[in-house]
Each structure stands twice: as C-alpha cells, then as structure tokens.
Amino acid sequence: MLFAGIMIDSLMIDRLKKKWAARCLFLLVFAISVCSNLWPAGDSDLSKLSAWLVKYNKDPASFLSADTIVLPVITISNLVYFAFTLAVMIVYVFIAFLYSRIYVGEKSEQSLGTSILSYFRRLPVLIVFFMIIAVPALFLSGINPVVLICCIPALIFSPILIMIEKKNPIDAIADSYKYTKGAKLAIFWNLLTLYFMYQAAMMLLLSFMPTDSSAGTLPGSFFTAYFILAAGRLSGVFYDRLRIHPLPPASGPVT
Q: Domain range spanning residue 189?
C-alpha cells in the first residue's frame, strides 16, 4: 500500500456517491465546533491550574510535604468544562465512524440508507465498545501516552467490524488486531501525518488570528470538521484495502 496514495484518498472527504451526505456531516461537525467554542459550558479559565503546575514543577517537595498536600484549585465550573470538552470529542469520534460506515458501505455496494440505518442499529454496541476500552485507555494515558497511541492502529477496525460484520466488542477487538497484521505501522504513520497536518493548519491560523476570537473560530472549525471526516475516511480506506478489496501480494506468481 502506497503511503501517499492512501493519504491523498483520505483527504478527499467529498468523494462519495452521495456527496450531500459528506457535506451534511461536515456542516454538522462545523456547527458543533463553532457552538462549543463560542458558547462552552462551564468555565474555560484554567489560569489557576496553570499557575499551580508551574509552581509544582519548580518545587514538587513543597507541594507533597509530610504535613499537608497542596492540591490545584479546580472549580466545579472547570470540571463542567472538562466534561463538556470530553463530550464534544466523543461526538466527533462517533461522527467520524459514521463517515467510515458510509464509505465502507459504498465499497460494499450498500445504499446510503442501509449504511445509516445499520449505524444507528449498532450504535448501542458501539457505545459499549468505547466504554470497555475507556478504562484501559485512561490507565495507559496516565502511565505512558505513547503506548496508548501505538495501540490505536490495532483497534482502528473495531468500530467498523461492529457496524459492518456485526461483531460483539470483544471479537471486534481481537479481529481488528488480526486484520491489521502487517499494516499497523502504515496506519500509525498515516494517522500521525493527518494529525500533524491538522496541527500545522491550526498553527498557520494562529499566526494570523487567535483561534479563541470570533474571527478565528470559523476557520478553526473548518479545519476541525475537515480533519475529523478525513480521519473517518482514512479508517474506511484501510478497511477497504485490507478486507474488501485487498491488493494482491507484490511477490505473487505471474499468471
């Protein structure tokens, strides 16, 4: 599988038989991003937490003394903001896999209606899957985030297997690990490249205007919507190349 070819394909988010489906999903993510940035729930001011982290890094011993333990100042509104941000990210993930389901459905000669209906029928199982992996993911992110990142390529097919092949969450995890054999590094580098492209686009935007301003929110939300769907398409492209239309071995016999 050629790296450049898969990456270019994943960026063509509008290339569906039903272009309006991709455009509706794009507008949905765009609207969610704009609203969540302009009107976030809770208090997004984390200056007290940032100041605590700076002081802690300078002198950890004074914060963890035998007499008392000084904790950072986090208000209830801050916790609401964290929960709100996490909820928005989860919604983005589910929209990305809805795009994956539509893309894979087209490659499997399924209609758009069948793909969407199948997605919502399997949505409860998909939620259970993410609940199952949530605790290990939080544990790994606390110990070593790099390990968590390296596990993502092995699990990337799990949601698609739940939606397409009607696997239960445990079987989907095991089969995803098996089906990505020999392609985990390629998946990892494509996801990493996509992420860096998103960060580069946001940094370029920051060089002209702050993203927390009303003017910066719109282009920032555009990039967010674009790369959320690109990530969903990337997952579908790999599933198509490995499961639906696998490429013949490069060293196969000449016929």
A: 3-42+87-243
Which residue shows structure tokens 């919507």?
A: 225
Q: Select from 206, 236, 248 the least CA-distant residue to 223.
A: 206
Short-list 204, 207, 201, 208, CA closest to 226: 201
pLDDT band at 58 (very low <50, low <70, confident <90, very high): confident
Amino acid type, 118: S
Q: Where are the alpha helices (DSSP H) in 108-168?
A: 112-143, 145-155, 158-164
CB under 8 Å, gap of 24 or more: what pairs does 130-133 form? 130/90, 130/93, 132/169, 132/170, 132/173, 133/173
**Residue 230 domain flag:** yes
Q: What is the mean pLDDT of residues 192-201?
A: 91
- Provide the 8-state DSSP code for 215: H
Q: Is residue 186 part of a domain?
A: yes
Per-residue pLDDT, 32: 96
Quote the DSSP letter at residue 168.
Answer: -
Q: How much is the average pLDDT of 98-119? A: 94
Q: How many CB atoms lie within 10 A of CB 160?
A: 25
pTM of this structure: 0.85
**Does any domain span residue 57?**
no
Q: How many domains does the chain have?
A: 1
Tokens of 128: 């259970």
- Determine, yes or no, domain membership for 159: yes
Tell me how far apart the terminal alpha carbons of the chain are, to the nearest angstrom: 21
Counting residues of the chain whose pLDDT is more than 90, the rounded percentage is 51
DSSP string, 95-116: HHHHHHHHHHHHHTT--HHHHH
| Confidence label for 68 from pLDDT (cuts 50, 70 and 90) | low
* 234, pLDDT greater than 50: yes
